Records
---
Amino acid sequence: MPPRLNLTSAFRALSLRASTTPAAGTSQPLFLQQSQKVAAPAARRFYSGDNLTPDSQLPQSEQLPPSSSSSSSSSLSPEQFDNAAQQSVRQQQQRQDNVNALNRLEMVAYGLNPFDAKEEGHKYGLPSLPLPSELHKDHRYDDVMGQITRLLMKDGKLSKAQRDMAMILNYLRTSPPPKLNPLRPLIPGSPAPHFLPLDPVTYLRVAIDSVAPLVKIRGFRGMAGGGRSLEVPAPLAARQRRRTAFMWILDAVQKRKSKGSGRKMFPTRVAEEIVAVVEGRSNVWEKRAQVHKLGTAARANLMNPQIKNFL
Amino acid sequence: MSATNCLRCLGRPAVAGASRGVIVPVFAPRTAPFSTTAVQNAMPGKPQKSMEHQDRSVRVYRAGKKMKIKKKGNLDRGKPPAPGERKAFRKKIVLSNDNALPVPWVTEMVAGSLSDRKQVGTIVSLPPVLQDQLRATEAFQPTQTWGLFRKPSTLIRQESVDLIGKMEKAVENKETARIVLTGEKISGKSTMLLQAQSHAYLNNWIVIHFPDAQELINGSTEYAPIPNTENPTLYMQQNYCLKLLQSIKKANEKIFAKLLSVSSHSELPQNITVNQPLLSLINAAKEAEGAWPVFQALWSELNAQGANRPPILLSMDNLPHIMKISEYRSASFDKIHAHDLALVKLFTDALGGNARFPSGGAVIAATNRNNGPRIPSMELALKQRLAVQNGDSEGMPVKDPYFKGYDERVEKVLKTVEVMEVNRIGKKEARGLMEYWAASGLLRTTVDEQAVSEKWTLGGGGVLGEMERAALLTMKI
Amino acid sequence: MASAANSLRLCLRASRKISVRPAASPLLRRALTTTAAQCARPGRKKGWKDPSDNFEFPEPYEGKAFNDLGEQLRYSLENDELNEADRAAVQQALASWENKPNEEKLEEQQIIKEIDKEFAPLRAPVRARHNSFWNAEEQDTDLITDEVGEDDFEENDMMAMGHAKLEEHREYREYARIAVWEMPLLSKFTKKFEPPKENEVLRFRYTTYMGEFHPADRKVVVEFAPRDLSELTEVQQSKLCKLAGARYNPEKQTIKMSCEKFELPAQNKRWLGDTIARLITAAKDPTDTFEDIPLDTRHHKFKSIPKYPKEWYMSEQRKKELLAQREESLKLDMKKRRTRELIDGVKLIEQGVLSSVKEKEPVAVRVKAR
């Protein structure tokens, strides 16, 4: 597992400056360097602070970037003295920062978390992870709901589709518990029927997953000989299965007769169809059986040598 | 020389076939002269069924070659919905949901519940008798969410207690409280009216409720000028009147059975003498023709001074509709002002303070923001009244002197009414409401302060309808 | 057979007016001229001019054809109109011609012939073609340039685009020089801002287009606030606003008017001043104070810019209030949790469903619609 610690912020805390002494990489750990700073005067890393080296005792001019050091090294005017004093204060500060940053880096190297929340400075504290789904815009709704709402949508009016979906759910909530048909069993693991009305999302999910077909029939044109297409079953992914099932349900809704008017009519028809699916009255079940039968009959076509290149 | 192909179509002319040795009957006398249409041959050898087609050659040749556009399987199944059935579906009101869980702490509304200040923030359910009465006066609306819960229940709000308090105070002083309810969209104005009616029914008032003012003015009911009214001519709406009488009778049957008439009404289709129950007076209106006189008689009986009459609640929803020119036309095809319709005039007179109920009562009207027309003079008058009530004489809005859309009659009606704003609910009330929702099994969350304040904020800071939308009408349940 | 259309076409062609100049014979022209020959047609009077010609060269050798230069010179000597100097020059030329040997004469004649031959196409008269479209092939004599080899690159210069880039840089530098050397000099002209005094009520705006002519440069705009006119009473001020009509801005409470009637800004300004003076006298007129007429603001659209409400600003006190509220609500939650009064929707649903199963199935009591 990769470490969750972020090195970039530790690096950002370092104040980078070009140093006069050439950078020399060491293989020694930093904390050793710090302890041995008198013993190993030449040891110095590129990003290391001044306090690690005996050079820090030298006059400021040597610590400055080359461009400024040339002017200040020969003779110091009073102004330059002031500048130098300010710079020394600033550098003191930077040195302190560097020490902190380096300490953190060491902790990172030892696999510790160098940042506690207080030090990070979060104004409102960190959220507890993983985020609950309602806080993420893409996962606000159940995955089936998200997919189906978009299938309900017409002309890109998602908001209307969502309102329709809410009405469908409310219809399911208020309709009596479905009476199951033993010939048309629901998907295994579905809750008992009297649990369904108070959990309309599951109700809808069960209905769709129960009638979702497992395969679709692909036709390969002209391969069966005599210009006929060769029908070959192909498995469907979960989303595809749900889509097929809901499109069948929508087709059945289209054929249903509208008994009333108003904005509740369409959602009511969809919800009635869903209840019919769960109760085993819907024609969608027959469609599913037909596809499965055809898929079973055509499974021998999978061995067709022409097909093998396509699969 | 003739071309090998027909000029207008790609078919070969019949003569070309002769060269191939096929014997072709001579068509020359049968084709229409100067026609550029290709000759279509009927199947040779097919016996002609009737000889009378012989001369009408074109028809015979074209037989069986009509273009048919096959309609997609939109076959008519069964009979179409009966008239009014579709509207009935739209207006269907369901008051209970058997799947919803019963909430143990919800009590039934009693006569004093709505005026009890301690009960603010609690939910009370409507007793079955009251439900029938409210149903009779169409106080429930299909857009409200009655159908989601086990029993129709309502939240007692601060505003409802205030409103009921005003009604009670008016009755104590034998006065008439004249109140207009205003507020944002779906903030609960119609529900406040329903609560006022509930209080009235439970306290044995007489309730006359106009469920939708729009029905009075949009030209959907029959109307006729009332004889002997001049300047302005008044109009009666007999069908609406009959409907109204029936709903009044259904809702107030018990009280009317006890009340006796104080004067005789010989002009009615059924002669009513003194000391007959008012119920029989209402029953006199069997058909739309006699409805208006019966209503007038009833109104005069209810307002009879000296007789011991109960308080009266006169209420109307969607007030702005009656504050404009109606869709009706006079005999000279001028548009009729809504206040010239007799029923509207009755209500506006009462709202304007011209009618006095013998033992007090209330006239309450609710504005609507969603489907209502903008009436500038009404809006201004209400704002002015509100400023007066708040004692804010400096911030009093004034008329725009150069705007022509003001209506003096409207201003006159609203000059002295009391304006009550139906505001947003507080968090305490919101918590009570959400606990009720959760206990009914409709809200899958733990109702703590965080959840309450989330829904409260999503609902525009406590707009009740918006909170419902955010919590009950979502895809996330 | 000729059709009717064809005959019509022929008629039209015959009636078409084309000025055609016949090609003159080469010897009728002066030698070494590149001008197209113009000559009177034989059989016409001498004074006749072709009206289409703009001007004509004098034609001293009309109708003559010369065999050589000597003959031509002799002919010109016979002309009486020749002045003395010319005559002498011609005689000298004739003498030198006659002194030449014969071969040279022939050679010279040959050269002249060759040159004539070379220039013949140039001299050819321009004829309008019968079937041209609006004489499209006619040359535009104004734009004749030697276009041969104009775009050839001879590798001794930059390309045109390079020149353009260079020009651009020159322009940059010119403005940079101005910015560095000349702009600082403008500071000499700075003036300290003096707020207008009590009696300086009018504010004028003029427009200049930096010396260029523009129809709007004469326009003068004046703006003033009626409140600043301290000599007017409040009633008179409001009357002034009403008189100003649509020129009154009720939001800023100023009157703004402009004038571009006259040719000069000064005239326009004068007119504005006069108008304001008249307005003020009218406002002072006590016969009608207009007090009964409300101010008309229909011309102005009031903009309402929503501002962040003051109550919403976070103050220390507000923070404390909010904290207290939160604390209280948390306490309430804790208390409810302890007494098990906190309502958990999910749990309630599970319990409710289970209990309803234990009971008998509820009977549907849905009330029918009206």
Note: The first strand of chain C starts at residue 203 and ends at 206.
---
Amino acid sequence: MSNLSVLYDAPGPKAKARNVVYTVLFLVGFAALVWWVLAAMADKGQLDADKWSPFVTDSRVWTTFLLPALGNTLKAAALSIIIALPLGAALGIGRMSDHRWVRLPCAAIIEFFRAIPVLLLMLFASAVYVEFTNINSDMRPLYAVVTGLVLYNASVIAEVVRAGILSLPRGQKDAAQAIGMRKGQMMTQVLLPQSVTLMLPALVSQLVVVVKDTALGGVMLNFDELLRSVRTISANYGANTIAAFTVVALIFIVLNFLLTSAATWLERTIRRGKRTAGAVVTADPHDQMEAQPAAAPAAEAGDPPTPTGKD
Amino acid sequence: MFDFLDLQRYDLFGAFWVTAQLAVFSAIGSLILGTILAGMRVSPVPLMRVFGTGYVNIVRNTPLTVIILFTSLGLFQTLGIAMGGDTFTETNFRLAVLGLTAYTAAFVCEALRSGINTVPVGQAEAARALGLSFTQVLRLVVLPQAFRSVVAPLANVLIALTKNTTVAAAIGVAEAALLMKTMIENEAQVFLIGGIFALGFILLTLPTGLLLGWVSKRVAVKR
Amino acid sequence: MRVRKSATLAASALVLALTATACGSDDSNGGSSDGGDSNDTLTIGIKYDQPGLGLQTADGDFTGFDVDIARYVAAELGVEEDDITWRQAQSPERENMIKNGDVDFIVATYSITDQRKEEVSFAGPYFVAAQDLLMRSGESISSNDEIGDLNLCSVSGSTSAQKIQEDIAPDANLQPYGGYSECLTGLENGAVDALTTDNTILAGYAAQDEHQGKFELAGLDLGPEHYGIGIPKDDTELQEKINAALEKMFEDGAWAEAVEKNLGPAGFEVPDAPEITEGK
């Protein structure tokens, strides 16, 4: 039911009038809410120009505080995803191994780290680094944040990889075996290359999750990232916490929106590519995955591509 | 070995109880809000569709930490919304539930919308042929079927929610992650403490996953 | 072939990333390898977000009372101002930074306590602060008994917060946050009645241009905090040098000038210089 207008009749004159009434009521209610919020903020002096103007008039807010902090956010996110990718691919492929002694540990690792909040992983990593290493205190928050994110995201990526490979038609595997390929050859030359394109959108969406989770390291582990910069900014510009906070939230939203759009664009491009070169893969596995979220094994493996919660 | 587990000083069960409460209240709230949002996204009123889409896109792209901190700094400290709490402890708990609800609802909405997509067109057409209005079509025919087909994705959303309750530590809600932070700072047995809290979360999330997995197979619509 | 290429690419990206971080940590280690008593460079830990004490300004420069103390001591140790490397020393990190040798010494509202002396040593004290309340102008309270009726705000895990909860007013309604500036927003908007911590930190906030006339200190004394300069454990040579530098600073008026300049605007009266107790 992708065309949703099937849920209601084409509006007649009465329904159209009713829709206009709803629209007006909704707008009035929304405007009243916005008005109340702004009035309350103005009342408390939170809309004063000197709290907000630094972000427009003083470029140093950006060069000294916001941009370096954004750089740290991106650095942590990029490092995490780069390290988690090969780890996750290895775990995901390991989970499909024919040998039980490979399959079971991989499955256990994946399920373990998927069940634990990423904040706990970060706190734990930080404590371990304090206790057993002498990484200097400037770098430790970054190490702890990246470690937490890698452990968690590697197991998510493992499931994405597994879903991507499982979604390929069985004939691919059969054909590879028929021409006498070894298991490793089959994986690296037949299955992985085909599933990588299918996995790309899910991986980019995962990057959004990673970027969002770095903020946790800022607040709980004093990692110098974007959200943390609110504190230094508000120490310099007279406790303009609300203003700094709003600006930082907007930066996060814009950044993640760009990443999400990239993921959607990738997905569309890949699907379109499939349709024209349709001979390679008969059934579009990606459509299949989305169309039957309830079909148990495929759906469980296929759930990472549709963003679920914060993970 | 367990002598550091001074339960007088570290209220382990209390902390996990707060975590569980956060998860349950936010789950109820986000299922309700998410369903309303999904309804808005498929409604005949264009403005409501725009609002629903906008809400989901903005909330999904905002870090949960930002949302939780916003409930405290924005709603409470600036707008004075204390959610009827008498002490900061009560207020912070309720604000955390509000923040988690607002965040998770966006994901519930998306899961539900993909569920609506799986309901065959004929169902809605038949319902309309009977003369049902939009809300009746949604309430009596489409949503019941949609819910049954998205139990598994919803289970994932709820498990993610359980894990996300740890973010409430950012505004000082005394839940599991905050206790772990305190314990790790004061005690030496890092691995033991880490293991205990990991086990706690596995005990919270694993049964949810298994139960809802079983439910999803039982209620799946056979087509 | 394409697979192999992308695999190589991924692998080399990984290696690059790892070496990049490795280099990063090498760089930042560089400053501190010289040791405390070297004559050319110093790495000093300070607060970056404490107005009046240690603050990174928009120019990337540093100001505050702790920073002035650190500069004076560095000069006495024969280190030019340009040769000082500033490091952010966040409260929970301070002992680790000294033990790891990330810094030569720390001047960051660092109270001398017996517990800390098990891991690090101190020079000084260079200031005796007192825990106090910061309230909206005109709302001051007169006695400690009234604290229990206030909505308080402090930083989670700080000694000030613990003191309130354990000794002064166990029933008080206390909002913990990650930083003092969050508390300040609540104080400004009326959601909390008072922010409690050392009076130096409070004075630093009250003295800011944007806050002139908005907040004032209650003037209570809820217990002293002796600020010392944190140094590696049992480094008596450095301890003596720093103590001598502090003595000189007390005597030549530079100390009183620094107090007046950084905390004076909040109505903070310059007290007598403290007596140096560490290493004696």
Note: Chain C has two domains: 34-128+226-266, 130-224.
